[in-house]
Amino acid sequence: MKKWWHDKVVYQIYPKSFYDSNGDGIGDIPGIISKLDYLKELGADILWLSPVYKSPLADQGYDIADYYAIDPRFGTMKDMDCLIAEAKKRDMYILMDLVVNHCSDEHEWFQKAVQDPEGKYGNFFYIEDKKDDRTPCNWRSYFGGSVWEELPGHSDKQYLHLFHKKQPDLNWENPEVREEVFKNIRWWMEKGLGGFRIDAIINIKKKLPFQDYPADRSDGMCSVERMLEDADGIGKFLGEMAEKCFHPYDAFTVGEVFNEKEDEICDFIGENGYFSSMFDFEETCYGKSEDGWYASKYVLTPEDYKKCIFHTQQKIGETGLISNIIENHDEPRGVCHYILPEDRCLDSKKLLAGVYFFLRGIPFIYQGQEIGMENMDFTSMEQIDDISTIDEYKVALNAGRTEKEALQAASAFSRDNARTPVQWNTEKNAGFTTGTPWLEVNPDYKEINVESQLTDSVSLLSFYKKMTALRKTQEYKDTFVYGSFKPYKEDQENLIAYTRTEEKNILVMGNLQSQSRNVELPGEVKNVLLNNQEEVQIKNGTISLNPYQFVILEY
Ligand code: TEU
Ligand code: CA
User: N or C: which end of the chain has fewer CB within 10 A?
Assistant: First the structure.
C-alpha cells in the first residue's frame, strides 16, 4: 500500500550546530525557522530534529530531563509550535527524536527514584542492591566503563545505564513506564508532528536476570551488543508502541536499529511493521573493530562501500523501505569516510551523493552534507566536546597507543566531525553565530559554504537540488521509489553501478577511480537523467566513463 512518506526526502538537523539566531553560540529553533526556505529549495520534505527537549546536554540532548518541555537554549514551546506551523505552510513535516531507552538523571522520575528507591519510581529504572561490592553483571557501557553506577546517596545500591551515567535506563518491563512513554508520544503527535526518529531503540529489551558474559577486552567486561543478541522479546514492546502511538496517526517513524536478524526485517519495516523504516548502518559499522576506534578502518575503499550497500539492498529486497545515509550526528563526514583521500574532489563527492541517493529506500541528508562538509582534523583533544570521543581516546591509550595515535583515531571517528557548525558563508564563524560558537568552526569554511554554492550552478549543493528534483519528477518517481534494485557489473572494481526497474529501466553508475573506463550498457540509452560532468560518451552500446564520472541513464 502506498504511504505519504514513501517518496519523501528527509533532512537531519542537529539544532545545536545548525544556525544561531541570538548570538549565544548555540543553534536554536528560531534559527531553523529562518532557514526553512533554504531547506525547501533544496528539496527536503521532512525535517528530523535531533533532541531539543529540556536537558542538561551531557550527551547533547540525548539525555532528556523533561519530555514535555523545550530546553531554553534551543527556544520555547511557542518556537516549536511555530516551527511545526511554518513547516506545514511549506508542505514540510517535522520529526522529533524519541529518546526513551533512557532519560536524564535530572529527570523528575530519577530524582524521585533516588529519594525513595523502594517507591513507585524506583521501579521506573533498574536499581539493584550491591552484593559483596559486586556489580550485577560485567557489561561495558557504550561510552566506557561499567553500565552500573552507585545510586546517589545509597552506597548499597546501583543503577543501570547502557550509555553515560547521566542516562539511566528506563525499565520497559514496567507497564507504567510504557504508558508514560506512549502518553508523551501521543501528546507530540497531537501537535501535528510527522513522526519520530527513534533513538537507540534496540536497547530497551535487556537479557534478564543480569548475568556476566565472557570478557571481550582486557578490562574484563563485555559489550552491550553481546547481551542484546540474547535479549528476546522486544517485539512485544515495539508492537504495542506502534499500535497505540504510531498507526493511529499514520506517523512516519524511523528506527535506529543495529544488527537486526534477517528474519526480523519484516517485523520491523514490513507492511504493518513496528516502524515505517530503519537506517542502513552496514557501511557505518564496516571495519569498526570491537577493540575500539584505534583498531578500526578509517576510510573504506570503493569496493568495501559497494559491498555494504549492495548487501543491505539485497537483504531488504521489497520488504520495505530502508533509510539510506552517508553520515549523521554520530559519524564522521561521509565524503571522508567513503572516499579515499587521493580520490576526494568535487566530482567524487557528487558521485558518492548520487550512488546512495538513488538506492531503493528513503534518502536522508545530514546538515552540511549538501555542501560537502569535511572532517575537522582535530589537532588536540581540547577541541573535542563529545563524551564518546573522550572515552575512545582513553581506550586507545590503555591499549598502549601513543598520544599521537590515540588522537588520530579520535579525530578520524569523532562524532564532533559532524557537529562542527554549519558553514553558511565566508563571514566570521562561517555565519553560524555572531557570538562564540559552542564548538569550533571548521577552518575550511572559506572554501566550503552555502552562500558560494548557492550561486554556483556546478556546486555540490546545486547537484543535490538536481537529485531531489529528479526523484520527484512525475515520470520517474515510481521507479525511484518502488523500482527493484539489481547490481550491475558488480565485479568491476571501483565501479558502483545498479539498475532500478519498475515502469522505467534506469541505470545508476559511478566510476570511483582516477582512470577512465568503458562499460557495456544493458540496452539502448533513451535519456540521460543526470550527469556530474559535461558530456556522456556512448558508442556501440558502450559508455566511456571519465574519472569520477557519475551518470543516471534511462534505457
Ligand atoms: O546512538 C546509539 C548508538 O548506539 C551509537 O550510535 C553510539 O552513539 C555510538 O556508538 C557512540 O560512538 C544514539 C544517538 O544517535 C547518539 O547520539 C546518542 O549518544 C545515543 O543514542 C544515546 O542516546
Ligand atoms: Ca542561540
Answer: N
